[in-house]
User: Fold these one by one.
Assistant:
Number 1:
Amino acid sequence: MRLDVDGVSVAIGSAAILDGADLCVEHGQFVALVGPNGCGKSTLLRTIYRALRPAAGTVFLDERDVWRMSARESARRTAVVAQEHHADFDFTVREVVLLGRIPHKRPFDRDCPADVRLTAWTLDRVGMTGFGDRAFATLSGGEKQRVLVARALAQESPLFLLDEPTNHLDIRYQIETMELIKGLKVTTLAALHDLNLAAQYCDRVHVMRAGRIVADGPPGDVLTSELIEAVFGVRAERMTNPATGRLHLAFSPAPAAVVVQEVVPRSRRPRRETM
């Protein structure tokens, strides 16, 4: 599955939330979407999974406009772990994970033994074996997050969209969740706050600022000290993680932030015709 976002814009009233954002995630890539709070990361994800129709631009999955798909077909192709979830719905953990099977069923179909086996497997993958009968509302924030990742796994979609998938997780489960997602080898776009997690696990990063993608490429090329200071307003010392050989960043306060428009040259793709 390949994802293309082409010139997507979203406005609320007179305020532009996204301004001609475009990105590409190639088949099997794990790509991070990073940027300061309020830059439009969650809004961009919502346009991709059809929760928000853009005012301009198009989202393509394997050359097909997502808004020309049915909701069911879109759900079969895209699994989502969003930041927002309802802590008070009266479902067990197993029932929450089984919701991931809905796009594959006809109305009134019951859960089959294969669905139950898949649910058990996904709970095991996220370290939640034995929690199937627990009420979802009684779980901690980190436990809920892992259950929602399990639901996305149960959906068996070729595209994963994750909005802060390590939110509420302690260090162990942050690493285990990122290892799990990386190991799936599914086309994945994840909004992340932690630049070191993005540098450690992702094939590419797209950096957002004020509703635009201002840089993209491999983490070691894009996450320069200059760009981080310009976009995030902090200083970053680059070093090599001795355990992994990947980029690691150490942060300190910056005296002033520099406004960046586009620090790293980006390959421009021609506007595409809606198919």
Number 2:
Amino acid sequence: MTSPFGGDIANPMNQPTGPSSLGYWLGGLLIIGGIVGGIAWGWVNVAGFLNAVDDFERVPVGEIGTIQLDEGDYVVYAERGGGQPLGLFLDGVRMRPAGQEGADEIEFEPYVSEFTYDFGNHTGRAQLTFTVEDGGDYRVRVEDGPGTTATTAAFGPSVASDLVSAILGGFVIAGIGIVLGVILLIVTGVRRRRFRQRGWLNAWNGPGGTPIGSQPGSWNPPAPAPSGSWGAPDPQPGGWNPPPPPGGGYPPPTV
């Protein structure tokens, strides 16, 4: 015997289990894992960005200092302890290899885009770029001109890509986990719903696909005809049969 929800009532151990609900758990874990992974990625990369800014070589405005740089490309950042980073500016920066009075000065180029940072005691704006072909010590002079609004010149590699990677990477990781988790939840739900629908259809149709009530051995009484209408059953002997209406029940004769 089948139940209205599928399965065999007489043999409950033979109930079909259908698609597992494990997909719901896996989908939820993917969503949670994506969010946690995105936050972790962003935190690690932001921490790396902050450490890189802390490690910049710095020379106060109006002073001469010595910094150590390796071979590579660098950025000069105009810094100040607070304020609006977009308003920071260095009027003049001069740099040459230390101990080489006759050496050529490093050539600076304007920073082609806009990049600022503001956290803790560091508020800065990227202003100049330069390239160091030979690593070593460099003598730096930061002039205190009339247009200078910064208090410190910071020298370090470009960190804009690190910040972009921290933000976008976190969103990408979280987005992938959420999308995959939602897809798995939807697929699992659709499969389980289709299985229940098949169970209901099988229970309605019965064994072999024959609708219940039309199977061999089932009682299917005919629908009784309305009383007094054509096709009604004939009066049964011994039963009570009402007398015919006055006039014999026949139409009046025509003249």
Number 3:
Amino acid sequence: MKKTAILIDGAWFTNALLHSVRLPNNGVTAEIIHKNALTMLGKDEELFRIFYYDSMPFDGRAANPINNQETDYSKTPQYASRLRLFRELGEKPWVALRRGDLRARGWVLTEAYTKRMMQGGPHQPITENDVKMEFEQKGVDMRIGIDVATLAIKRIVDRILLVSGDMDMIPAMKLARREGIQVVVVQVGSRRLSPELIEDSDLVRQFTILTT
């Protein structure tokens, strides 16, 4: 049996699920994440641990530049939902959480407003609903890379299943393979992996997505 660690880039995995299958009304839950992670395992693999990487929700305040209305993001349903997901996922067996930060980059035009402008429709005054706060993850990629390197150099596992489409993972993947660790990249539904990720892995694995 191959001792195997599963490393999941939470934001990438969630987006891949949303693009591939119809999810329940409550969206991507801890139960869905955990069940799908276990489904990824092959018959010759023994689970070491599931590492789940995602950013903490933004808890700051920001004022909409159009109407100056301030939002306290720590009071939003999305904030509470993200904390609940982390809590429930942390209670699942064999799961280790790795949390980065979510930082506000500033206000940008919404996709819908930009599309209207590009299509040359009648000019309408911009409203508070035509802008949104843009956020950026910090520290998630670094934590994935550190864990890949640690698992490989210390020979903790025989195989790593990597659930991410981020090419920033390639240096860590190369290191793991040089250390004799097998690296498998997981394709989630219709979300295609880059040729570079595939080239620097040992295998591409698909699995049947579970939604309940």
